Amino acid sequence: MKYVLASGSPRRKELMQRISNDFEILVPNVDERAIEEKLYKRFCVHDEDHGPMQDIACVVSMELALAKAKAAKEILVARGEKDFIIIGCDTSVALPNEILGKPKDRDDAVRMLRDECKDPQYVVSGVAFVSDSEELKFCEITKVIFNPLTEEQEAKIQAYCDTPEPYDKAGAYGIQLYGDGFVDRVEGDLNNVMGFPVNRIKRELEKFWGIKGCTKFC
């Protein structure tokens, strides 16, 4: 069995090593913005009467994860490969009235971090498994509460946004590094906040493919 991670994220690569020491990384070309906009329109994200934003984020992240995994499958099939499991993943942050992806620039990163200080946020990771004959997708949600937006917190935000850290992360922070200084508490899976819910992935692999332990695959 060949295992493939359809992500170029260094954090996901590191966390994937807790599941397997033997896997390939493929980073397929997927038009994520087009998929997001189609689903945002479907769920009326930009209207006042949208549903719970974390539920919408869950659907969007699962569809993006599946699109990445299926695009990776096309590469493998074109190479003539069989007997594989591809893991695709997408993470976003849901506030009451917005789904946060990666910031566009410094001003956007500052805005996101300020908003995250005002309301509890839900870190949403959609995960998809694609084999040569099956597909599965699921979602993991973790609640994160930031410290209030004080002068000290504002100073931390400004200093953080002067580093490269916020700009490749949903919600503009990574809890595994300096971003943990913003956080008061986490309710749920900390690995999910880093973009890869390891324990849930292990359970789903065992449930659907009968892979026991999932520490080292042959």
SSE series = EHEHHEEHEEHEHH
Find the count of extended strands (DSSP E, 2+ residues): 7
Number of helices: 7
* Low-pLDDT segments: 212-218
Mean pLDDT: 91
* Rg for CA atoms: 18 Å
Strand composition percent: 15-25%
SS-derived structural category? alpha/beta
Instruction: Give the distance, in angstroms, between the N- and C-terminal Cα atoms.
Output: 7 Å
- Bulk shape: globular
How helical, in percent, are the residues? Answer: 25-40%
Largest sheet: 7 strands, mixed
Characteristic key phrases:
218 residues, alpha/beta, seven-stranded mixed beta sheet, 38% helix, globular, disordered C terminus
Description:
The protein has 218 residues and is an alpha/beta fold. The chain has seven helices and seven strands; from the N terminus they run βαβααββαββαβαα. Strands 1, 2, 3, 4, 5, 6 and 7 form a seven-stranded mixed β-sheet that branches. Helix 2 runs antiparallel to helix 3. It starts with a strand and ends in a 9-residue tail after the last helix. 39% of the residues are buried. The C terminus is likely disordered.
Question: What's the layout of helices and strands?
Answer:
Blueprint lengths: L1 E4 L4 H7 L7 E2 L6 H11 L10 H26 L5 E12 L2 E3 L5 H13 L2 E11 L3 E12 L4 H10 L22 E5 L2 H4 L4 H12 L9
Parallel strand pairs: 1-2, 1-3
Antiparallel strand pairs: 3-4, 3-5, 5-6, 6-7
